[in-house]
């Protein structure tokens, strides 16, 4: 059942069409009346041309353009346009004979000067058709452009949702991986009944607070991320005792820098897990430099050629997260030499992670 609003819209469109064709009739009457003093004859001839013009125009805007031109079926568009041109030319010839026979009573000199020439008559008709077709093309292009924009917006929204889901999945991987390593260390201290166990529990409490409440945020402050690394290193110092030497260098030249959480810790974990104790000591050097437009993170540990630092989910995870969070905004270099394993990560932080 048609709604009232739909009926009103259709009536309004119909009235606009009627008004437009009334304007065209006035144009024909003026155009074909040039050089003639007989208004009635010109009006009659214009009325005869109106069905031809209306039919030609509607065939163009409702069939040829939307069904063949817009859909890029150019062969059919050209073919059917030629057919339409031939038929319309034939009807124009009929209109000239109509003017000669019924309006001028077979008196050629009594015909309006313009109506004697088929080119002038066809010019008047096709002028109207071309103008209306031009507006139809413009309207269809606007509609297509809006549809394209809407489709792109939907695709972008879907991509953002997929990106968000993938990031959540990667973060879920971080939690058990990190907690397993930390709890395993604490278990070793508990077995030894070491006096450092309460301090270790406090450090672990801080780490859990970071994991549970901070890691789900799109960004955290660089200071929080560094504190998280220092707490982790403190736990590992307790586990390694005298066999660990960690040097942390910080050069922070800009305040209020924000980054994605848990970006650096997988590299730190990797250094402890796969680092090699050389001459009784595992050496690890961590360097963090922050400028207004970039962050440079470096970590180096003693290693042997046989050490497989790329094993496990940690490094693969961080690479995927970097691609999602900092596309074309990061530089990552991993070097494994005979005695050292080095990671250099530079982040371009000019662009905020607003999309995440």
UniProtKB/TrEMBL annotation:
One of its GO terms (cellular component) is membrane. Residues 146-173 form a coiled coil. One of its GO terms (molecular function) is phosphorelay sensor kinase activity. Residues 166-243 form the Signal transduction histidine kinase internal region domain. The chain crosses the membrane at residues 7-31, 43-65, 77-103, 118-138. Pfam families: His_kinase. Keywords: Coiled coil, Kinase, Membrane, Transferase, Transmembrane, Transmembrane helix. InterPro entries: Bact_2-comp_sensor_kinase, Sig_transdc_His_kin_internal. PANTHER family: SENSOR HISTIDINE KINASE YPDA (PTHR34220:SF7). This is Histidine kinase. It comes from Winogradskyella luteola.
């Amino acid at each position: 059942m048609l709604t009232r609003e739909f009926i009103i819209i259709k009536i309004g469109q119909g009235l606009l069409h009627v008004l437009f064709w009334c304007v065209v009739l006035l144009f024909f009457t003026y155009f074909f009346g040039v050089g003639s003093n007989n208004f009635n004859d010109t009006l009659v001839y214009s009325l005869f041309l109106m069905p031809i013009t209306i039919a030609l125009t509607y065939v163009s805007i409702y069939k040829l353009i939307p069904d063949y031109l817009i859909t890029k079926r150019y062969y059919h568009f050209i073919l059917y346009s030629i057919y339409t041109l031939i038929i319309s030319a034939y009807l124009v010839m009929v209109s000239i004979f109509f003017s000669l026979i019924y309006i001028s009573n077979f008196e050629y000199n009594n015909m309006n000067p313009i109506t004697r020439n088929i080119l002038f008559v066809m010019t008047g008709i096709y002028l109207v058709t071309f103008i209306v077709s031009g507006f139809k093309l413009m309207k269809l292009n606007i509609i297509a452009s809006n549809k394209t924009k809407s489709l792109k917006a939907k695709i972008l929204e879907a991509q953002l949702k997929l990106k968000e889901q993938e990031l959540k999945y990667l973060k879920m991987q971080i939690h058990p991986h990190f907690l397993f390593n930390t709890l395993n260390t604490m278990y070793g201290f508990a077995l030894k009944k070491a006096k450092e166990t309460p301090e270790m529990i406090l450090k672990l409490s801080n780490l859990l607070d970071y994991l549970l409440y901070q890691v789900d945020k799109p960004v955290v402050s660089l200071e929080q991320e560094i504190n998280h690394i220092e707490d982790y290193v403190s736990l590992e110092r307790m586990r390694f005792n005298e066999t660990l030497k960690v040097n942390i260098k910080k050069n922070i030249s800009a305040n209020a820098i924000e980054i994605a959480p848990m970006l650096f810790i997988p590299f730190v974990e990797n250094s402890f897990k796969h680092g090699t104790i050389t001459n009784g000591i595992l050496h690890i050097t961590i360097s963090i430099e922050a400028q207004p437009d970039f962050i440079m993170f470096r970590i180096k540990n003693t290693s042997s050629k046989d050490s497989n630092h790329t094993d496990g989910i940690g490094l693969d995870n961080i690479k995927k997260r970097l691609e999602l969070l900092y596309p074309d905004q990061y530089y990552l270099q991993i070097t494994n030499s005979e005695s050292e394993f080095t990671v250099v990560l530079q982040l371009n932080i000019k662009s905020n992670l607003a999309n995440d």
